[in-house]
Write a structure and sequence with these properties.
Keywords: Membrane, Transmembrane, Transmembrane helix. This protein is an all-alpha fold. The chain has 4 helices and no strands. The model has no long low-confidence stretch (mean pLDDT 81).
Amino acid sequence: MGNFKKAAMWTGIVVTALCGVVLLGGGKVVSGTLLIATAFIMVRPIRRLKLPLWVRIGLLCAVFGLVALNISTTDLPVSSNGMVVACGNEAADGFTPTGIKFWDQVTWIFSSFLAQAAPS
């Protein structure tokens, strides 16, 4: 059980940091920075300040809640209603609206990240 616990903990830390990198690349600087800082804090816990488990879980939920709140403020592009529009934003190429607003905002941020990460 100890190995499973360690593997789950490190998987959570890596996924949190990768989500922070994607948010930074997608233009959500505050959320990305918050998630990366959270990942560093999760890696190197402060030994002097030993908080109870429920407080640590509550703080992680608060951080992820703030990130979700910040993602929900993302402005989506206006649909072109079938018209061909020339735009300089490469993120619009990989974005297809689904009708679920939060999911559309997440995919828009991810498309923005992929557009910036793509080789020129």
